[in-house]
Amino acid sequence: MLEKSKFTDAVKKYYTSNEKVIDFYLELLYEAKNNNLLDGNFISQMSDHDKTLHRLSELLMFKYCLASSITEISSENIGPDIIIQLDDIKINIEIITPIKVSQKRSSMRVFNCTPYPSSEPSNYSVPQDIPDMNSLHPRITNALTKKSDKYREYLTDGIVSSDDVNIVCINIGFIENVDLVDFPYLKNLFYKQEVICIDIDNDSNVSHSIEDNDFNVIKENNTIYKTSYLDNEIYPHIDAVWLICCNDKNLDYLKKLKYNEFEMYKNIIYRNKEAKVPESLLSALCINKPPRDSFNDYIRENGKLPN
Predict the structure, then answer these.
(1) Any alpha helices (H) in 125-263, and if so which ranges?
(2) What is the pLDDT of residues 151-182, one digit of tens each?
(3) φ, ψ at 124 (rounded to 5°)
(4) Do residues 92 and 83 lie in contact, with contact meaning Cβ atoms separated by under 8 Å?
(5) Are the CB atoms for 149 and 197 separated by under 8 Å?
(6) Which residues, including other chains, have CB under 8 Å from residue 95's CB and lie 6 or more apart?
(7) Number of structural domains, the chain?
(8) Do residues 151 and 94 lie in contact, with contact meaning Cβ atoms separated by under 8 Å?
(9) Which of 69, 128, 208, 270 could form a disulfide with 108 if both were Cys (CB 3.0 to 4.6 A apart)?
(10) Containing structural domain, residue 103
């Protein structure tokens, strides 16, 4: 029997006292329970702020998958958080939720566009904290490293197979001021940065090429880590990273971000070069793929700028 009071007490203590939000998560809890997705210690582990938010994040991702057209979704006490059977392929999903990210004091411009007379100035600045990318990057890389180690354990113990599709889902939706993150820039953690190079020979002939550079992350102890993980095949047993910004405020419209050039990066998958991730999974879950850069592709193929 679910310990409803312990669950609601933890949500109130570590997340919110808003009754509508608590009821929302209770509904997700019961749905996950009815679909046998909760492990035996799900509620008992909600013992502090971070663990509680991790559990709420799992409930959101359970709901996200259950609301799709996929019918075979399961979870075990020992093993990946979500297991999907699709097109005769076993797809494992491990969920992790980075939370503690330093904030950087900035300012935002405010414009008063009212057609009516106002005592306020037409434009002014207000202070605003935004997530510090130098803090966010290590949080994401640490999350991926932790789940990579977990998948290695699963492979060693025979819980997952080398024929499975292994995905790490990193949900950054509980980070403070997360909507102010530069989401497209995060792809550099997984893929190399493309730099356009210009070469002029002795006869003044100009040619162009694309140079792929590794993206480096500097951690708090000033240690530098080479990332661009998927291009560098640092984690060959990880087929993809599903990066999502999911919380109780945006769950309902995350699947509708496909055609928004910036918002689409809030629900996107970065795949390994040899990834076996089926397109049917991305279609069923409405997960976006990074758009191809046709400008850079043209330079790679032709050695010059498009006309």
Answers:
(1) 133-157
(2) 999 999 999 999 999 999 999 999 999 999 99
(3) -160, 170
(4) yes
(5) no
(6) 57, 58, 61, 81, 82, 169, 171
(7) 1
(8) yes
(9) 128
(10) 4-302
